[in-house]
Amino acid sequence: MTRLFLRRHVTGLVINMVLGIATALAQTATFGGLAGDTLARRHAFAQQMDLLGRQISYLLPLPKRVENLWAYYQWRGVGGALLVMTGWAVVSATGATRGEEEKGLVEEWLAAGINRATLLFTRFGIFLLCAAAVITAFELSAAAGGAREAGGIPWAGLALQGLALLALVAVCYALSMLVAQFSASRRGAGALAGGAVALLFFANSLSRTLDGLR
Length: 214
Description:
The chain is an all-alpha fold.
């Protein structure tokens, strides 16, 4: 079952890894050219990003001290990766529940003597393994892209950021699997799970736009 589930994750794994590596390199390797090489230019860059960040605060956290690479990467790089990874979690979780039931695969596995708990935790564990691989590639690419920048990116910070991202993706996957139980079809499960995750995401984002919710 482990090999079977790994094969079913190959497409998502490759796509997300390519996107993650490209995003990390794009955000870190180009930072010096965007922010400039003088203190004045970097402060001006930070002010421009602050204005931009307030306009898209419903998607990304507000930028703080983005005149340095590490803060900029956490804002743009990790913020963008989070949106992609949670989308992958929703699609994968609903496919692992209602999608496989629609194809009759779950019945075949149960008839072969595999219980539902084993199916559930195996799928969950395989997804976490694939997500960890994607996040590791993403973080290593960020470190490589920012190697020329003064100070670079701290390895301890990368490790903690990666763990936090993995934990959040795991929660989104588990929540999507739970919500999928309230729909009889994969399409309906995807809509419900995506709506639930989006609702929680935007409810959290309101604290960045409405002073009364801070």
